[in-house]
């Protein structure tokens, strides 16, 4: 399939990461058990998979799904719905659920993920953003080594601070993602200053990359997308919110209406795939993380800078690779697309995406549109030429994507 040089690189990388891959198998076993146990505890059965229509009153499948998610995440309650259109919508719903005019949201892990900027908005923007509603917003930048600035976090908490925001994943920035243990440390720090703050975590991309989740170390509320990790590549849409009962309930009032909350909402035939996706998620996250480790090992052998490095601990799916020219970025992203089962005949090109200062190139040959537990890659065309890749439903597919990308680079004389 590939020439000798590429095959040799693959074999070398696989040898280097062998021990790490074994450790990951233990993690997957642990999380697989955790999920199965939650299903068993709630006696999940065939009839739970039946969908509902109309109001969806007494949809037992939906009710049990919430209980299963809550147990898996060690939370008091959860709200798992296909009605969330994206991760951003889910996170927005959680924040609007608990914040009121005059309250402050204080983000302590630096500037949040791009799509949240408009949810936070600006005062008087007329869009119904948090700040438009009179919620105030502040953020504490991370230190230059990517760790939280505890001194400024302590100083930044005021009597109005109602919600502390934490982003677990690196998102698309060159910083480490936070481990659940580090998030626990942040919780202790802020609750020490103000015991009644609500700690919220954007858990996108983090689920099942460790044995614990943020809600098990004192986080009050968290949210994520079903077209990322916990949907297991099967859930076609949706999001989840998990945490303390009272806060999840407030978020449910925001999703539907006060007084209605999570008691209503037809599942429209999505229930079985959401259950099955959760069952598959620990394994698929394991495949994707192995793929990221493999990619890091390959490109490190070739002398490129990677973040995280193959042997670093991982708490999200994202692998950043720093190349040396725009041609590398384009060859890499196009290679990922060429190895896809879906849309491999499409050649991605850099384009001026709304909201971005530089052209961006993206590879996404996915079964679920935008599904980023599936192998995908993107890169803004600018120095320092960083490509971000994530996901992969099978480890073999991740490898094929990386090797095809290498092949492109080789053919273009870039290696
Ligand atoms: C993907 C993601 C989001 C937003 O999710 P969308 O589904 O794209 O709206 C928010 N935060 C992080 C860290 C993410 O990775």
UniProtKB/TrEMBL annotation:
Q: Which organism is it from?
A: Paenibacillus xerothermodurans
Which PANTHER family does its entry note? CYS OR MET METABOLISM PYRIDOXAL-PHOSPHATE-DEPENDENT ENZYME (PTHR46658)
The protein depicted here goes by the name Methionine gamma-lyase family protein
